[in-house]
Amino acid sequence: MNLYLVDAQDHEIKFHRTDAPHDTKDKTWVADHIWLDVNHSFFKSIPQELLYGDEIYFKADVEQYPINREDVLEKRNFIWSKTQELNNSIFQNWRAMRKRYKGEQYSIKLASIKAQIKANNAIASQQQKKIKLVDYGLTGIRDIHVARYLPVVQYKTFHRIHYNLKKLKISNYSKWLSRRTIQYKALKQNKH
Question: Is the pTM for the entire model greater than 0.70?
């Protein structure tokens, strides 16, 4: 799912961040994925099944929540371990060359090495902080409406269904809907 921020007239709201990802039409993504509660009122607002490529509009509130995802933690740890490898290399080079320095030269060079290691650690710490241990979710989803249904890729008897609101509380129904979505996405990609 691609998520875009638009105004009431469906015009894209531009971001000032230079690192924001863009799609093939050069629209700026708000996020590469989102978490949202899809509940009875969500499905009640959608007349027919949503399939891969369809577009919906909605308003929502954004909430931040802490995460402990392994991939994020690994990225942070990787930054620190690479910095420590660099620092160890600098220090080992210093140990191999230290006999060349005498008296005040020795003290100046050692202070320079320590300052470089300290600077490397500060840079690594800043890079780690850029990889935040928080994620964002959407809550209070409201004013949902379908902007565009794409034509369904015809395959055997596959067709768009109407959601069965009575079955929504049954987990098997939700899982079945999810499997349909995944299967349809694969079907659509194989047809192109």
Answer: no
